[in-house]
Amino acid sequence: MSGGSLAASVARQLADEIVVRGWPVGEVLGSERELTERMGVGRGVLREAVRIVEHHGIARMRRGPGGGLVVCAPQLDAVAEAISLFLRYEGATRAQLFELRVTIELAAIAQAAARIDERAAARVRACVAAERRRGYGDTLASARPHALHVLIAELSGNPAMRLFARVLADLTSERGDVTVDRRRAAAYGAAHHGIAEALVAGDGALAQLRMRRHLEAVAPVFADGDPAPLGR
């Protein structure tokens, strides 16, 4: 096995160990010396493996007394960016992404409504209020119209929905050339208010219906039926 392949294998073992141990953020897996002995590899291979896990944001090497390989919590922004880049590389179109976004968001809002509580309801109300104060700006890029959508996915309690809703919302909402006029901004605001109202009431069927109508209404803006791959 080449040095690079061996380092990748050790990195996978470290990642597996983190998962098996319940992802103990802040815990030290071992010093460099302890890890080289445990993994049965040289210092050079271990350091390359550490660079791999550091790149993925799951652990970092802390130097000095009491140091070692420390377990970290992966950052949503970094993970979402990596997935976004992959989808760009694969040539995904806005229309394809928006189709998947609709599926995920309708499932997410049903789950969020089923488990809504006062704390979650307060977050939904605050999100809509902040949107109203901020307004939509002049273009789609400045509008940031998907904050409520991402929050709903988070409130579903499904981490996969949270991640992919974030990625899909970012990719389908990034068109900076689309002007947001007053009529469209008012329609977005009214739709979000209605969705939030149904969600806070725990009415999953109504929340889904309003979300579906909203997504159907904005589809021409966000998806645009554009066959051209993103970023190409």
What does this entry show, briefly?
Helix content is 67%, strand content 3%.
Task: Outline the structure in words.
The protein has 232 residues and is mainly alpha-helical. The chain has two domains: 3-71, Winged helix-like DNA-binding domain superfamily/Winged helix DNA-binding domain (Arc Repressor Mutant, subunit A); 76-222, Up-down Bundle (Four Helix Bundle (Hemerythrin (Met), subunit A)), CATH 1.20.120. Helices cover 67% and strands 3% of the residues. The chain contains eleven helices and two strands. It has helices at residues 3-20, 32-39, 43-55, 76-89, 94-114, 118-134, 140-143, 147-155, 159-172, 182-200, 204-222; strands spanning 59-62, 68-71. The chain has a two-stranded antiparallel ribbon with strand order 1-2. Strand 1 (59-62) and strand 2 (68-71) form a beta hairpin. Helix 8 runs antiparallel to helix 9. The longest helix has 21 residues, at 94-114. The mean pLDDT is 87.
Helicity, in percent?
55-70%
Number of DSSP helical runs: 11
CATH superfamily of the largest domain: GntR ligand-binding domain-like
Strand order within the widest sheet?
1-2
Q: Report how far the terminal alpha carbons are from each other.
A: 37 Å
Total domain modules: 2
**Number of DSSP strands?**
2
Query: Under CATH, the topology of the largest domain is which?
Result: Four Helix Bundle (Hemerythrin (Met), subunit A)
Architecture of the largest domain in CATH?
A: Up-down Bundle
Largest sheet: 2 strands, antiparallel
**Helix/strand-derived class?**
mainly alpha
Strand proportion, as a percent range, falls in: under 5%
Could you state the order of secondary-structure elements as H and E?
A: HHHEEHHHHHHHH
Name the overall outline: elongated
